[in-house]
Amino acid sequence: MKKRILVVAPHPDDETLGAGGTIAKLAGQGNDVAVLMVSGHLPPLYTREHYEETVVESRKAFGVLGVKTSRFLEIPATMVAQEPVHVLNGKVSAMVKEVEPHIVLFPFPDRHVDHRAVFEAVMVATRPVGAGRAIEIAACYETLSETHWNAPHIEANFVPTWVVDITEQMERKLEAYACYGTQISPSPGPRSLDAVSALARFRGTQAGFAFGEAFQIVRMIG
C-alpha cells in the first residue's frame, strides 16, 4: 500500500539534514512525500532576496529527494514562537488535514527556539483525532548543530528508537544537501558535508548497516 509522508521542517535544509535519506528511500518506493517548511530566512534578520535564494535551494533539494508536494509558510526565522499559538497550530494542522499522512517526521525540541515551537505545533496537529487518526508513525529527527547542544539531563536528550537504513540513499542525501550552498559550513563545521556523512555512518553502525538516519518515535500504531 502506498503511504503518504509529511515532513515538517522549521527551516530550509532541516528536512534534508534530519530525514533526507529516509525521504529518498520512501519516495523511491513509490510513496508520496510532502514537506511543510514553517519558517525561512526573512526580514528582519535576513533580506527577502536571501529568502528567495533558500527557496530555490530547497526546491532543488526536493527534486533530488523525490518530494512530491511542498508548502512554505514564510514565518521569519527565530520568530516562529511569536506566532499566536492557535494560528501556528492551525497552519500546521491544515497541512496534516490536506496530506492525511501515514507517517509524520518533525524536529526534536532542541537548542533552536524554532525547532521547539514547531515540535509543539506538530504534537497538537498529529493528535489521534480527525486526520491524525490515520497516522501510523510520528517521530522526531535530529538536526546537526542544534539537537546535540541541549544540556544533558537538564533538557530533553535525543534518544533514537528507530534507525532507517539509508545506505543506498546516502549519496542522494549528500547531493540534496549540497543544493543548500548558503547553509553548508566548511569542515569540520557541524553542517558540513563531512559532518552529515559522519553522523549517518555513526547511526548506521549503531544498527548494523553502513549509513542510517535516527528518529525518536513519539507514537506508533500497528
Short structural summary:
With 222 residues, the chain is α/β, with parallel strands linked by helices. It is built from 6 helices and 7 strands, in the order βαβαβαβαββααβ. The chain has a 7-stranded mixed β-sheet with strand order 3-2-1-4-5-7-6, with helices on both faces.
CATH 2nd-level architecture: 3-Layer(aba) Sandwich
Low-confidence stretches: none
Give the count of helical stretches. Answer: 6
Mean pLDDT: 97
Secondary-structure-based class equals alpha/beta
Any idea what the shape is?
A: globular
CATH level 1 name: Alpha Beta
Distance between the termini: 14 Å
Order of strands across the main sheet = 3-2-1-4-5-7-6
Order of helices and strands: EHEHEHEHEEHHE
Counting structural domains, the number is 1
Largest sheet: 7 strands, mixed
Output the CATH homologous superfamily: LmbE-like
Strand portion: 15-25%
Describe it.
The two termini are 14 Å apart. This protein is of the alpha/beta class. The mean pLDDT is 97. It has a seven-stranded mixed sheet, sandwiched between helices. The protein has one domain: LmbE-like (Rossmann fold, 3-Layer(aba) Sandwich), CATH 3.40.50.10320.
Question: Key features?
Answer:
alpha/beta; Rossmann fold; 7 strands; seven-stranded mixed beta sheet; 222 residues; 6 helices
Question: Could you give the topology of this structure?
Answer:
Elements: E1 4-9, H1 14-28, E2 32-40, H2 48-65, E3 69-76, H3 85-99, E4 103-107, H4 113-125, E5 137-141, E6 162-165, H5 170-178, H6 193-207, E7 212-220
Parallel strand pairs: 1-2, 1-4, 2-3, 4-5
Antiparallel strand pairs: 5-7, 6-7
Helix pairs in contact: 1-5, 2-5, 3-4, 5-6
